[in-house]
Amino acid sequence: MSAATTRSRTPDRLCAEAVGLARAAAEEAAAPGVVGEHVEMVVEGDRVVTHLFECKEFGYRGWRWAVTVARASRAKHVTLDETVLLPGPDALLAPEWVPWSERLRPGDMGPGDLLPTEADDLRLEPGFTGEDAPPPNSAVSDEMAELVEAEDVEVTEGPVADLPVAPSRGSISAVAEELGLRRARVLSRYGLHVAADRWEESFGAKTPMAQAAPATCVSCGFLTPIGGSLGQAFGVCANEFAPADGRVVSLSYGCGGHSEAAVMPKTPRPAPPVIDETIVEPMPLHPAPDAGSVGAVADPGADDLGHS
């Protein structure tokens, strides 16, 4: 260890004793009563010492006021270098800053929000815009020229080179636009894999719903196929009662709403009633005069029991 290193780790006596000067500087920068007890002293270099004081201000738990003092060579007075508030080992700090593009989560976008994509986004790759297409009168191979002339003779009145305006039908741009390829950027293979992994995680074969399903979506009548290479492994659910209605689901996914999982039997027709309740039978409230042995008007000459 060199002599310079040994001197730098040894605190200067006058700087180490300048605790009062450091406290006064901290209270001037903060406020009276906010600066707490002297915590420790850190040697910064030759005749340079930092005094640390506890911070009692609300919201700065664990922070410390750091006051650096220094002394010039052969000088007898200690001077103030700087005063700053620094976090301690157990200080309450804000979380590490994360760019907005990494903080964004599915469902965060609302009406009117814009989500720009980077120029070098790995999920996208250049598509066909028509800028690289050869002009109508450019030099092409003989075979290609004969093929163009043969195809355009059905839609034009003469050779393409003799027309004032090149026909739109049959051109590379028209075919690309018809196939849906005339876009500045399209999904790359990485973008396809990322989307497939995300959909497989949400509605795939390893989900609890699929594990308990009676059958997979590949045999469900509510599955709507999609085009492209993703259509070989995914589709869209069209069952309004299923948990994945309107979502892209894996063909190996499944739920209890499978179209062929359980066929509901027809409601059995009830048997004809034994008692015909549609006929109304009159029930008289008073008996008819000839319904019993006792007449409607008692005979004065008859006995009390009403018998003859």
Descriptive account of the structure:
The protein has 308 residues and is of the alpha+beta class. The chain has eight helices and nine strands. Helix content is 20%, strand content 17%. The chain has a four-stranded antiparallel beta sheet with strand order 1-2-3-4. The longest helix has 14 residues, at 189-202. The termini are far apart. Residues 1-6 have low confidence and may be disordered.
What would the keywords be for this entry?
single chain; about 300 residues; alpha+beta; 4-stranded antiparallel β-sheet; 3-stranded antiparallel β-sheet; about 15% strand; disordered N terminus
Number of helices: 8
Order of helices and strands: HHHEEEEHEHHEHHEEE
**Global morphology:** flat
Unreliable stretches (pLDDT < 50, length at least 5) are 1-6
Q: Structural class per helix/strand content?
A: alpha+beta
Number of strands: 9
Rounded mean pLDDT score: 79
Largest sheet: 4 strands, antiparallel
CA-based gyration radius: 47 Å
Identify the strand order in the major beta sheet.
1-2-3-4
Share of residues in helices: 10-25%
Q: How much of the sequence is in beta strands?
A: 15-25%
Secondary structure layout plus pairing:
Layout: H1 3-9, H2 13-16, H3 19-29, E1 35-45, E2 48-55, E3 63-70, E4 79-87, H4 100-103, E5 124-126, H5 142-152, H6 172-178, E6 185-187, H7 189-202, H8 208-211, E7 223-225, E8 234-237, E9 248-250
